[in-house]
Amino acid sequence: MSQPNRAARILVVDDDEQVRTLLKVILEREGYAVDAAGDGCQAVAVFDPGVHSLVITDIVMPEKEGIEMIMELRQLVPGLPVIAISGGGRLGPDDYLAWARRCGVRHTFTKPVPRRELLAAVTELVGQPVR
User: Fold this and answer.
1) What is the pTM of this model?
2) Which residues of 79-92 are buried (b: 16+ CB within 10 A; e: fewer)?
3) Residue 90: what pLDDT?
4) Is the C-alpha dihedral spanning 129, 114, 121, 126 positive or negative?
5) How confident is the model at residue 89 (pLDDT cuts 50, 70, 90)?
6) N or C: which end of the chain has fewer CB within 10 A?
7) Would 1 be classed as within a structural domain?
8) What rounded mean pLDDT belongs to the chain?
9) Contacts of 22 (CB under 8 A, 6+ apart)
C-alpha cells in the first residue's frame, strides 16, 4: 500500500454528471481531495502531474475516450495509477474494461461502481487520506 500524500489529489473523469458527482462525494467523504472533468479533453486540460496522483475515468465518453486520455496522461506520467469504470456503449462494459487492463489499468469496475471496492482500490493506489 502507498503511503499517504498530503498533496495527493484524485481526478475523476466521467461524462455523466450524476456519476461524476457521486464519485466525488464518496471520495471527499473519505477525506480525499478531488477534481472532476466531464470528458477526456477536459481531463487532459486540468491534469497536473505535480498534483494529481490518481485518475478515475469512464471509458466511453464524447470528445476524447478514456483509453485515449489514459495513453496521453501516461506520456506525461508513466505508470500513473488509473481506475477505469464503464457502463458499456456499443460493446458491453467488460469489453471496454478489458482494453483498459491491456493499457495497464490495475483496477476496473462496471457501473454502478461498488463503493467499498472502489475505496479499497483507491487506498491501495494512493494510501489513506491525511485528515
Assistant:
1) 0.91
2) ebbbbbbbbeeeee
3) 67
4) negative
5) low
6) C
7) no
8) 90
9) none
Residues found in the chain: 131
Which residue, chain included where needed, has cell 474494461? Answer: 97
Cell numbers 495509477 label which residue? 81
Range of the domain at 113: 9-125
Q: Is pLDDT of 130 > 80?
A: no
H/E stretch holding 35 reads: strand 33-37
| Domain assignment of residue 2, yes or no | no
Q: How far apart are CA 103 and CA 83, in angstroms?
A: 11
Higher pLDDT: 95 or 82? It is 82
Q: What is the Cα–Cα distance from 59 to 44, expressed in whole angstroms?
A: 14
How many CB atoms within 10 Å of residue 117?
11
With 80 as the cut, is the pLDDT of residue 49 above it? Answer: yes
Longest dimension (CA), the chain: 42
Q: How many CA atoms lie within 13 Å of 70's alpha carbon, on the beta-carbon side?
A: 27
Q: Which residues contact 26 (CB under 8 A, 6 or more apart)?
A: 115, 118, 119
Q: What is the number of domains present in the chain?
A: 1
